[in-house]
Amino acid sequence: MADRQGHIVFGNTSANTLLGRVALGVDPDDYSHHHGIFTEDGRPYPSTDLPLARAVLSGETVEGDRLRVRRPDGSTIVIICYARPIFRDDGQQDGGMVLFHQVV
């Protein structure tokens, strides 16, 4: 989960284990670098094009984007992402969340 500026404020244990790192405090400009995220064919993935950044920065709902993640141990995995903006009761956007799972 990210706050309204896109800083990651929560990652559950499953996400941290899957990615191989904790992401608290990372902002949208550093998502790709911090997490080692690439396109499926290995090209650098622009941070602001990632699903969570799009949900937070433009209020977009993203479904089914596939990403390659290089974990700290050097292994790579492919994940599928779903991201949504989070809104308060008064309709103001308050951040965003991303759900992802590893492609087997």
In short:
The chain has 104 residues and is of the alpha+beta class.
Fill in the keyword field for this structure.
single chain; 104 residues; alpha+beta; Beta-Lactamase; 5-stranded antiparallel beta sheet; 3 helices
Give structural notes.
The longest helix has 8 residues, at 51-58. The protein has 104 residues and is of the alpha+beta class. Helix content is 19%, strand content 34%. The chain has a five-stranded antiparallel beta sheet. β3 and β4 form a beta hairpin. It is built from three helices and five strands.
Strand count, sense and barrel status of the largest sheet are: 5 strands, antiparallel
Give the overall form.
globular
Number of helices: 3
Briefly note the CATH topology name. Beta-Lactamase
Beta-strand percent range: 25-35%
Structure classification: alpha+beta
Annotate the secondary structure layout.
Elements (H helix, E strand, L loop, with lengths): L1 E2 L9 H7 L11 H5 L1 E2 L12 H8 L3 E9 L5 E12 L5 E10 L2
Antiparallel strand pairs: 1-5, 2-3, 3-4, 4-5
